[in-house]
Design a protein that fits this description.
single chain, 104 residues, alpha/beta, 3 strands, 23% helix, flat
Amino acid sequence: MLEFQSQPDRWMALRFATYATLLWQHLVKEKQLTAKGLLPPIFGLVLYNGEASWSASTQLADLVDLSDSTHLQAFQPKMRYYLVEENQYRKEKTGSLSGILFRQ
């Protein structure tokens, strides 16, 4: 799944978890599962083109207020997304993936 962002979103990890579960529910309803009858994996990617550095957590667990010592940690959903910050790559590098993706 690909999400384009122009500003940091504190709740991005929660949004991705929501997108993933909605997609999985749809696949179950449509009987579009893997050959083993399971859900396919999802890779979440945020492409961020804002000026400021990305400040939001990339993992859902950081948005849940639980101490590390609680036994409830094992029962919390674990999901994360991969972040690509456009401003961290050199645009002038022609031929590089970042140069191709982020040239203006």
